[in-house]
Design a protein that fits this description.
The protein is an alpha+beta fold. The chain is 27% helix and 34% strand. The chain contains three helices and five strands; from the N terminus they run H-E-H-H-E-E-E-E. The termini are far apart. 22% of the residues are buried.
Length: 110
């Protein structure tokens, strides 16, 4: 899957925001505009091709409303559907300062 394919689906298909994603957006003060903007102007930083029912990916945008944003979407290419799984502002406890690289777990802390 490519970001171009996902953007094409966003333009010509549907974006479904389920209950879980809608609640997270509300809790985190993230708007649908920010989600769409992240998809349109961000880049894929992780792919999860074996997720069910559809493959997923994590999209990152460095600055939207002065903060970084991560958006996870499921992609149904055949049906031209995107499913918002979740969205959040990444934090330095889990991400390197570039917000694209996950921090390595320190097994001594587990």
């Amino acid at each position: 899957m490519t970001i171009e394919e996902i953007r094409d689906i966003l333009h010509h298909g549907t974006l479904t925001i389920g209950t879980h994603a809608a609640l997270r957006m509300l809790e985190r003060g993230i708007t649908e505009f920010e989600v769409r903007s992240t998809i349109l102007h961000g880049r894929i930083i992780e792919e999860y091709p074996n997720q069910n029912p559809f493959p997923r990916c994590l999209i990152f945008r460095a600055k939207i409303n002065n903060r970084p944003l991560h958006v996870v979407v499921g992609v149904n290419r055949e049906g031209m559907d995107l499913f918002l799984v979740t969205t959040y502002v990444p934090t330095l406890d889990k991400w390197e300062p570039d917000f694209e690289t996950r921090r390595q777990k320190n097994h001594a802390e587990e």
